[in-house]
């Protein structure tokens, strides 16, 4: 039943409210000693910590029809959770982290790497359940993320491109880049795009190229990079990726403490039990 203003108590209309202040209830005791419930009608109808979100799910048919296998390959989502701040400032939310930060994928699965953020984060007083404050890197009140490969999970320095393997062992299946031909992107282009959160879309041969000779260059804390990044969808190359684990971090938010932002992707063999789906047998 929906309870609204039409259910308010009204003696003239003989209407009783279904919710009353600290009501006494009879629990059926023969001694007829009622018990009182702790109901504060001033608070009873309030909603605390409304965490509702609007999520837009796009049909793959609108974006991937150029691929003959677009309708059969599972898509795994690699995103970012949490908000700007330290552990007490973000409460009851959490600090930044990749989600999932440990991912196992099968050779036929696609990985969609993307994230959302804001340029107007406000955690001033009153700060609600958490502590006021804006701990974090870069411009205050902003979210930024990127993704660069590291050699091991306990190493917090990214590998130089020449030593990376994650983008060489994967291929671009789809990209959100409006002015760039995704089929023409090589591993260096993809590495630059993910490291810059889409500020650059390639190294040389596109409008938003990294080796431009003029214009505003990427800020080293990603301050001028997009807060949100629709990202790209990748496939793994089974011949080189199977059995490997790829570690990565976010350079801006990985604070070498409990505020780390890192993760790994492991590519399973097609014979692994997790890869034996009913639709592929």
Polypeptide structure, described:
The chain has helices spanning 41-44, 87-90, 187-195, 238-241, and strands at 24-25, 35-36, 75-81, 97-99, 102-105, 110-115, 148-150, 170-175, 229-236, 245-249, 262-267. It has 281 residues and is mainly beta. It is elongated, with a radius of gyration of 26 Å. The two termini are 47 Å apart.
Instruction: Give the uncertain stretches in residue-range form.
Output: none
> Whole-number radius of gyration?
26 Å
Structural class: mainly beta
Along the chain, the helix and strand elements come as EEHEHEEEEEHEHEE
What proportion of the residues is helical, as a percent range?
under 10%
Extended strand count: 11
First-residue to last-residue Cα separation: 47 Å
Strand order of the largest sheet: 4-3-6-9-8
Could you tell me the strand content as a percent range?
Answer: 15-25%
Give the count of helical stretches: 4
Indicate the mean pLDDT.
Answer: 86
Largest pleated sheet: 5 strands, mixed
What characteristic shape results from the CA principal axes? elongated
Can you tag this structure with a few keywords?
elongated, mainly beta, 4 helices, single chain, 281 residues
């Amino acid at each position: 039943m929906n309870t609204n203003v039409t259910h308010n108590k009204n003696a003239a209309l003989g209407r009783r409210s279904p919710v009353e202040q600290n009501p006494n209830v009879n629990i059926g005791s023969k001694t007829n000693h009622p018990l009182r419930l702790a109901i504060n009608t001033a608070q009873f109808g309030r909603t605390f910590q409304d965490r509702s979100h609007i999520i837009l799910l796009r049909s793959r048919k609108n974006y991937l029809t150029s691929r003959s296998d677009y309708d059969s390959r599972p898509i795994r989502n690699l995103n970012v959770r949490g908000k700007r701040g330290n552990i007490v400032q973000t409460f009851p939310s959490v600090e930044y982290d990749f989600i999932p930060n440990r991912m196992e994928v099968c050779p036929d699965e696609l990985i969609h790497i993307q994230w959302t953020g804001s340029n107007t984060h406000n955690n001033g007083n009153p700060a609600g359940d958490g502590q006021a404050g804006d701990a974090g890197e870069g411009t205050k009140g902003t979210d930024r993320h990127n993704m660069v490969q590291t050699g091991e999970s306990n190493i917090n320095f990214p590998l130089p491109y020449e030593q990376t393997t994650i983008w060489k062992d994967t291929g671009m299946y789809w990209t959100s880049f409006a002015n760039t031909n995704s089929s023409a992107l090589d591993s260096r282009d993809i590495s630059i795009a993910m490291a810059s959160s889409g500020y650059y879309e390639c190294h040389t041969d596109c409008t938003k190229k990294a080796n431009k000779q003029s214009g505003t260059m990427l800020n080293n804390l990603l301050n001028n990079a997009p807060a949100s990044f629709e990202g790209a969808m990748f496939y793994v190359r089974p011949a080189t990726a199977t059995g490997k684990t790829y570690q990565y971090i976010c350079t801006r938010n990985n604070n070498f403490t409990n505020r780390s932002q890192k993760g790994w992707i492991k590519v399973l063999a097609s014979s692994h039990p997790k890869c034996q789906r009913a639709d592929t047998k």
